[in-house]
Prior knowledge:
Elements: E1 9-11, E2 17-21, H1 27-40, E3 47-50, E4 53-56, E5 60-65, E6 71-73, E7 76-78, E8 81-82, H2 85-98, E9 104-110, E10 117-120, E11 133-139, E12 142-148, E13 155-160, E14 165-169, H3 172-175, E15 176-180, E16 190-196
Parallel strand pairs: 5-8
Antiparallel strand pairs: 1-2, 2-14, 3-4, 5-9, 6-7, 9-16, 10-15, 11-14, 11-16, 12-13, 12-15
Amino acid sequence: MFSLFSQPIHLKLPQSTIHYYPNFINSKKADSLFETFKKEVPWQQDTIRVYGKTYPQPRLTALYGDNEKPYSYANITMYPHKFSNELLDIKHQIETKTKVIFTTCLLNLYRDGKDSNGWHADDEKALGKNPVIASITLGQERYFQLKHKKDKTLKHKLLLEHGSLLIMQGETQHHWLHQIPKTKKPIKERINLTFRVL
């Protein structure tokens, strides 16, 4: 089900440590997990403020954890549900790969191409100095874009595939922004699990 011995693709970007495992979860298991999370996760849609105006966040989210710590970003504060068995299983497999013990998972449901996640860095103080972010993609593949905070010539685009694992660590969040952009293509739903340490 989990490919613990697959070799990662190392993104050779300066001032970053980013690894991509295209087939971390096999297709059949990934299909099953997608359906489980879609049905059983208590998805919510928060509002965000942009230039003084309030908008519905362009995706659905949920937070899970094992330490009851809330997570705040973009003027949103979320409170965790207890890890499900499925999330614990994935968490343990990623921990075997990374040697990092994750406490929290932020889930995102992108319902179609209009749902997105704008340019940002996962650099909240609660995540620590050099956070490790482990991201699982289930469902529709989407492009993941990166751009350097200072050098505008440094950009990268990666297609995140069904069942894949992306790990960002080291000084990545200090120097790089990332996003899941909108697309006008008719596409299906994507669920993203982002494990982190709070």
